[in-house]
């Protein structure tokens, strides 16, 4: 699975002419509950997964950071100019420059290092390959520049700001927090300046179910404008009612204002606001179900959440397009699983992946059925990574 550490070390030594001294591991993440609630000050459940960005690094002299990313090419960034660049938006260079800037703003002195990395996290699929890369960078910088003194929750906030300001994606904090913290986390984003997360001690395998992620053959990175429209429309509803985000608004006030909202913002914005309140209730119910060990209740509420994302949030397909692979995958999963499992749109939506909770004894048949439609290896079984992004010295 992925590139071996031995192969990565060979690439590092051949490219940079010396051996590594630091190992970084940064997992991807799966959103378990809370579809597009984080950027509205709401709640989510998310978990780090057993697919990761792995990196090897060594400190160097000077102020240049050199990176080779297997399958994605090479770059070099001077660390004496860390301001955002319009021409770098959406690029790896923006992530490197932004993460280094976060450390500089906190009083640390960025100095050069070499990094070779490889990723098992499928890009453009809703598994947060960008957050995994950001937190891998963050932990290398944490080791070299801060002696590991920056806490995981602070690294998550730094990575989010990097993605928003330097990379140009208006993301919430869930991705970075799940990757940084590891395990299954119930997160409260009512205060955007503080990460509030509580570990959820639940084992899906012991409960008789596997987490499956199905890659449907569409890259959600191609729909970044559609993704950005979701928080924009939700927050437009909040502004119509004199607030900034939907967590500051009462659902009853939204319902009372529907005639006004339809006239000024249109029906889709109103539907997305109603999804927010529905999903908040469903997150609370699923947290309670997991803490009580009630997997049946969790699955029932997950099915309701999946329907809300498809019908109200509408982040499954775009504009009535003829090709709707995520919606097809959800329909097939529901037919295959019935009431014994659950399926939902995964992550930001608009292509990429869906998520299914599948009885352990039916994983093989479920995977075969999904692979037959979406391609060999489309359905993967995932486990929870309980450590989160981390580094270890090799010397």
Question: What would you say about this model in short?
Answer:
The protein is of the alpha+beta class and 395 residues long. The chain is 43% helix and 21% strand. The chain folds into 2 domains: 5-201 and 385-393, Ribosomal Protein S5, domain 2 (2-Layer Sandwich), CATH 3.30.230.10; 209-382, GHMP kinase, C-terminal domain (Alpha-Beta Plaits), CATH 3.30.70.890.
Annotation keywords:
395 residues; alpha+beta; Ribosomal Protein S5, domain 2; Alpha-Beta Plaits; 2 domains; four-stranded antiparallel sheet; 12 strands
Q: Would you kindly provide a written description of the structure presented here, covering whatever features stand out?
A:
The two termini are about 25 Å apart. Helix 8 crosses helix 9. Strands 1, 2, 3, 4, 5, 6, 7 and 12 form an 8-stranded mixed β-sheet that branches. A 4-stranded antiparallel β-sheet has the order 9-10-8-11. It folds into 2 domains: about 210 residues, Ribosomal Protein S5, domain 2 (2-Layer Sandwich), CATH 3.30.230; about 170 residues, Alpha-Beta Plaits (2-Layer Sandwich), CATH 3.30.70. The chain is globular and about 60 Å long. The protein is built from 12 helices and 12 strands. It has about 400 residues and is of the alpha+beta class. The mean pLDDT is about 95.
């Amino acid at each position: 699975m992925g590139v071996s550490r031995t192969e990565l070390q060979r690439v590092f030594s051949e490219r940079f002419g010396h051996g590594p001294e630091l190992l970084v591991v940064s997992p991807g993440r799966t959103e378990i509950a809370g579809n597009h609630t984080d950027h509205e000050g709401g709640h989510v459940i998310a978990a780090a997964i057993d697919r990761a960005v792995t990196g090897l690094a060594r400190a160097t002299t000077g102020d240049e950071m050199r990176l080779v990313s297997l399958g994605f090419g090479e770059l070099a960034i001077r660390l004496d100019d860390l301001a955002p660049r319009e021409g770098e938006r959406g690029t790896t260079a923006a992530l490197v420059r932004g993460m280094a800037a976060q450390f500089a703003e906190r009083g640390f002195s960025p100095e050069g290092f070499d990094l070779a990395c490889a990723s098992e996290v499928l890009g453009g699929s809703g598994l947060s390959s960008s957050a995994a890369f950001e937190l891998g960078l963050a932990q290398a910088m944490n080791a070299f520049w801060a002696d590991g003194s920056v806490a995981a929750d602070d690294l998550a906030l730094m990575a989010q700001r990097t993605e928003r300001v330097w990379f140009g994606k208006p993301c919430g904090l869930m991705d970075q927090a799940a990757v940084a913290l590891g395990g299954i986390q119930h997160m409260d984003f009512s205060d955007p300046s503080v990460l509030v997360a509580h570990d959820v001690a639940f084992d899906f395998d012991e409960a008789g179910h596997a987490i499956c992620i199905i890659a449907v053959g569409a890259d959600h990175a191609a729909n970044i404008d559609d993704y950005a429209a979701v928080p924009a429309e939700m927050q437009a509803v909040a502004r119509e009612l004199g607030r900034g985000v939907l967590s500051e608004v009462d659902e009853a006030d939204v319902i009372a204002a529907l005639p006004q909202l339809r006239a000024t913002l249109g029906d889709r914005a109103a539907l997305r606001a109603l999804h927010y309140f529905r999903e908040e209730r469903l997150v609370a119910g699923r947290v309670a179900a997991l803490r009580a060990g009630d997997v049946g209740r969790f699955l029932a509420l997950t099915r309701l959440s999946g329907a809300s994302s498809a019908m109200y949030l509408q982040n499954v397909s775009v504009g009535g397009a003829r090709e709707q692979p995520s919606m097809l995958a959800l329909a097939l999963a529901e037919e295959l699983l019935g009431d014994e499992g659950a399926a939902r749109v995964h992550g930001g939506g608009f292509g990429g992946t869906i998520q299914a909770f599948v009885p352990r004894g039916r994983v093989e048949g479920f995977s075969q059925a999904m692979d037959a439609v979406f391609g060999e290896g489309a359905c993967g079984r995932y486990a929870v990574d309980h450590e989160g992004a981390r580094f270890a010295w090799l010397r």
